[in-house]
Amino acid sequence: MALLLSSCGGGSGNSSGFVPFLPPAQTPAPEVVPGPLKIGGTISGLAGTVVLQNNAGETLTSSTDGSFAFATAVPYGGAYAVTVATQPVGQTCSVGHGAGTVGTHPVNDVAVVCSTNAYTVGGTLTGLAGTLVLRNNAGDALTLGTDGSFTFAAPVAHGATYDVTVLKQPAAQTCTVSNGSATMGASNVTGVGVVCATNAYTVGGTLSGLSGTVVLQNNGADNTSLNADGAFAFATPVASGGSYDITVLSQPAAQTCTVLNGSGTLAGANVTNASVTCATNSTTLSLNAPAVVVPVNGAARTLNVTNTGSNTATHITVTRPGGWSALTVDNSACAVLAPGATCTLSFTATAPYVASNAVSVQGDNTPSVSAVIGFSLHNFLVFDIPSAGNATVVDSADLSVIPGPYYNWGLPVAVPGAMSLTDGEANTQAMLGAMSNSPFVSVAGACRASGQAGLTWYVPAVCQLGSSGVCSASTASVQKNAVDLGLGQFAGTDIERWSSTQASPGLAWTHTRTDGSVATRTTSYGLPVRCVASATW
Predict the structure, then answer these.
(1) What are the pLDDT digits (tens) for 240-249?
(2) How would you label 74-105 residue by residue, b for 16+ Cβ within 10 Å and e otherwise?
(3) Which run of H or E residues covers position 504?
(4) 244: DSSP letter
(5) Which end of the chain is less packed: N or C, by CB atoms within 10 Å?
(6) pLDDT of residue 7 exceeding 60
(7) 133 pLDDT exceeds 70?
């Protein structure tokens, strides 16, 4: 059966009147919008704590490496911007892929990379003359040739230590480092100080043979006064490479000092091998008199000393026998004695001693000159001190009163008690007792009548006068302690004198001054007499 279609509406587009079949129109499916999505990523290299921030709002704190994500999601199509709000201490964290627009998937590719901060180490160099090599932390060498600022090439991480030292000093200099070690902070180090100074060394050596004071100089200055042997060094050091020249500015008073190894160039070490040797300049002395007699508790007696040599004499002193503490010597005028000059030694005494030639006058640089010192009481020479506080003195001249100067010894008969060899006082007393008739024409009477200085005078026994062969050598005598020493005004021709010692009836001993010989004479023979007496002080 045929389907008959008819035209409706009389459209003219289709002459056949056929109306085509059209399918219904298609409607697009609605777009699916995702919900808010998280923003995150990965942290690496962190050592400490970092604070991140998204869109200048929400923050996220992390102390470990790894993944992170902000708690608040961002809507689809919304913007995000991850930044570092707070950097870790000593580190710098940077953000990669940190900004964009949220799409259909969560953001998880934000990359936060942290690295430790590093700073340079440097400072200032002054005083350099040459080439200096520094190093930091036993490495990172830095060669410098001029003063000024310096910086090591390798930075040092925050919190690590740095240690600036000198690897190689300049020639002839020493450089020192200050503020060179510490822990690196959060900024470059610029306060390391390096100061260089030219090396300086002492100059000295050894002094020997000195007696007195010598003044040395180095390089015409830096005076050094020395008064004892031993090592010495000048106070002012000399720079390395500099010259030194040791000379004698002032010689000791009686010496000449010479310098060996005293000049040269400083070569990086102290000079200790200079040698200064002092030798005494000898000279000679003479005395104006060979002997001096010092009165006990009296005025001073002097002895003049003349420098007969060609060099200055120094510290002229008197050497006395041991035990002569009562004798005082003033030698202050003889400390320094120029050639040809004369000084005076002064002697005083508060007690006598038996005269002695064991006395020498000598300077530091002179041979000794012998002198004799005797002592007097009441202006009479002491020749014996038989006991403490008691001395025996001899008259200064032979008796010359009427009817002298020649006297008979006495009676031509035996005189009991007048035969002592050493006790003239006892002999004299015995003689006087036996010669009651005309005692004043005898030696005993003449001496006793003298009465000088209120002393009791008597004729000395033969051993008090002195003898060779008759008396003991240890006996104190006028011969030994006066005549032989040039004391007692015994000058002149040989004179034979009476002693008070009877040899036999009608004979008595006599003494001759020059050779100390003794003999016997008949008692009627006329001879002079030199009286002696006891005196106290």
Answers:
(1) 889 999 999 9
(2) beeeeebebebeebbebbbbebeebeeebeee
(3) strand 496-504
(4) E
(5) N
(6) no
(7) yes
User: In Å, how far from its chain's centre is CA 451?
Assistant: 67
CATH number belonging to domain 285-377: 2.60.40.10
Closest CA to 97 of 107, 86, 106: 107
pLDDT digits (tens, 9 = 90+) for 157-178: 999 999 999 999 998 899 999 9
> Which of the 8 DSSP states describes residue 452?
G
The predicted structure's pLDDT at residue 5: 36
Q: Rounded to whole angstroms, what are the CA distances from 238 to 56, 132, 222?
A: 70, 22, 11
Report the greatest alpha carbon distance in the chain: 237
Q: Is the pLDDT of residue 438 over 70?
A: no
Residue closest to 361 by CA, chosen among 389, 381, 333, 385: 333
Per-residue H/E/C for 353-408: CCCEEEEEEECCCCCCEEEEEEEEECCEEEEEEEECCEEEEECCCCCCCCCCCCEE
Q: Which amino acid is at 37?
A: L
* C-alpha to C-alpha distance for 490 and 397, rounded to whole angstroms: 8
Is the distance from CB of 63 to CB of 46 less than 8 angstroms? yes
Reply yes or no: is the peptide bond before residue 75 cis, omega within 30 of 0: no
Measure the CA–CA gap between 123 and 152, rounded to whole angstroms: 9
pLDDT of residue 495: 85
Residue 421 has pLDDT above 90, yes or no: yes
Residue 330, both tokens: 């003033």
End-to-end, the C-alpha distance of the chain in Å comes to 202
Name the strand (E) or helix (H) holding 274: strand 271-280
* Number of helices and strands in the chain (H, E): 4, 45
- Amino acid sitting at position 5: L
Tokens of 256: 């000449």
Give φ, ψ of 126 to 5 degrees.
Answer: -135, 150
Q: Say which CATH topology domain 118-198 has.
A: Immunoglobulin-like (2.60.40)
In this prediction, residues 462-467 reach a mean pLDDT of: 90
Torsion sign across C-alpha atoms 157, 162, 167, 173: positive
Q: What is the 3-state secondary structure (H, E, C) of 131-176?
A: CEEEEECCEEEEEECCCEEEECCCCEECCCEEEEEEEECCCCEEEE
Backbone angles phi, psi at 411, to 5 degrees: -70, 145
DSSP 191: E
pLDDT digits (tens, 9 = 90+) for 186-234: 999 999 999 999 999 999 999 999 989 999 999 999 999 999 999 999 9
The total number of residues written for the chain in this structure? 537
The phi, psi pair for 466, rounded to 5°, reads 115, 145
For residues 155 and 120, is the Cβ–Cβ distance under 8 A?
yes
